[in-house]
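DNA polymerase III subunit delta, Thermosyntropha lipolytica DSM 11003. Tokens?
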Amino acid sequence: MEGNIIYIWGSEAYLVDEEIRKITSSFSGDELATIYLEVENLNGQELLQLLDFSPLFALQRVVVIKNPYWFEKVRRPQVLKEIVQALEEYAKNSSPMQTVVITGLTNNTSNPVIGWLNQKARVIKCENPGPMYLRRWIKEEFARRGKRVTEEGASFLAQSGQDMYYMLNLLEKMALIKGDDKEVTLEEIKEELESGEEIKVFKFTDAFLKRDQKEAFAAYYRLREQGASTVFILYMTVRQFLALAKVKFYMEKGYSRQEIEEKTGLKDFVISKMAAYSRNFTAAEVETFFTWFLEADLALKSSEIAHEDIIMEMLISQIAAKK
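Tokens:
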């Protein structure tokens, strides 16, 4: 390894950060500075200047560069060549008191910078955790907070498809909510997962209910970028419109808010929101929407993945279009 350079790669951000924490904790004494560099649009010479280390304020330093733009598609190949030259120059003259940690999502060695790192740096691969690893980790994290999660609950969360930071935030929240109650059940985890995902999709469904087509498309693409599946987005959309249909039906029958709450089991704030949005749709339109929802659901379950977004885009165009 040249110049104390380490390349950590993997798509699970929590595990990558764990490796960084291991590196920083391996240094003895209090004279350690950890610096996170933003290298967006920096050229090779500017990077070299930032990596220059003089131990004036700290005897040891760890510099972390996370997912730099060099690993993406760069229009000018010369930029990558300059970065490699800068790293090469740094490695020849680096201080033994400084460690440079670079992280990336993949180990695509056809990229010149990653290729150089594989030859000259220490490479750490963060394997994507499997269900068995996640199940054990979930149980350990709950135990650290004085809670015991049921085997079914740990398995369900491990297979939820959420990233580890999301899971960590969720279990921290649940540990606080539980108070003196020590056991966390499958039902409680299901409820918390559903409410968390619902919050993320609210902007999309709200744009839908407002018939704001532009915002609905923008929110939809954000959800997709965050990894939300089309089936899940459709499911949450149907739930919102089902609540709207119930409120609209009973309002038009002359029921009071309290009576609607008793009939539907919906919370008061949900009834208030749906009462406001119900003015945007006729009863006939809402009935038609459920036909479209069914058609979209069948299409999503029978189509190729490449067509999923087209199906959802058509649905958004139909429902969010103002009459």
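The chain has three domains: 5-125, 131-184, 200-320.
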